[in-house]
Amino acid sequence: MVRSFFALLCSLFSIASFAQHVNIATGHWPPFMDENDPDKGCVAKLLRDALKLENIDVRFEFMPWQRAYIEGQKPRYAGTAYWYFSEERANTYLYSKYPITYEVNLFYHLKDNPMTAKNFSDLEGKILVLTKGLTYPKNLLEIIAQKKISVIETTYTTQNLPLVLAKRGDVAILNTHTADAYLQTLSDEERNQVVAHTTPAFTMSGYMLFNHKNKDIAEKFDRAMELLFENTAYLEEYQKRCPPLPSSPPQKQEASVL
Question: pTM of the prediction?
Fold first, then answer.
């Protein structure tokens, strides 16, 4: 198993000098996509390794998420990474066959500002911190409109927890791995003020989105992902930083509320 993992790495390096070069638009979402990480995040590494198997070298360009979605449609880019499923996006982009993340999202709030949220309706009266361009469940957005829940929209997800700490917002929704990454950047005093609600908000799978001009690259990516899924050692290495991936492609659907 270890031998096969190193054989894969050797094959990746051996083809690099002959690679086609593509750009992928993305946003900062550690540990998955991380502008400050040498690998640019664990999902970025997965994307890079998969496409290298098809002689394609990747350059990630980081920008606000909303802009990354728009830029990914332009000829300069192969697409954008990574996004949860939505019917609207499926009409604009080609979704990868395989998910590249599986995430559980939680409500984060201050200890001295407790909340009881068995469903989204319980957010009434709270100020919710969301990020422009990210995907949220339709029923959450409907309840926000129906209950007239106040929302602060940030440009970068790095702004969400600081707004909660500053008491400008009451609740932020983040996946557990990303929240942990952000919490590590806070002081002990600040970190001890923030708690995650025990009831998860929703689950989602993330996908690579290819623009329609790059259908051939999308097909190559799907083929390469099948090879990586067969490599147990590679997946074990991936899961040291990112949540485990399903062994077979699940049906694409919008956010699943727990």
Answer: 0.80
What the block records as the tokens of 35 is 């502008």
Cα–chain center distance at 178 = 9
Q: What is the pLDDT of residues 189-205, one digit of tens each?
A: 999 999 999 888 988 89
Q: Which domain holds residue 114?
A: 104-202
**Are residue 213 and residue 229 in the same domain, yes or no?**
yes
pLDDT digits (tens, 9 = 90+) for 129-152: 999 989 898 889 999 999 999 999
User: Is 19 a domain residue?
Assistant: yes
Q: Where are the beta strands (DSSP E) in the chain?
A: 20-26, 56-62, 79-84, 94-95, 101-110, 127-131, 150-154, 171-175, 194-196, 202-210, 256-257
Q: Is residue 213 part of a domain?
A: yes
Same domain, 32 and 149: no
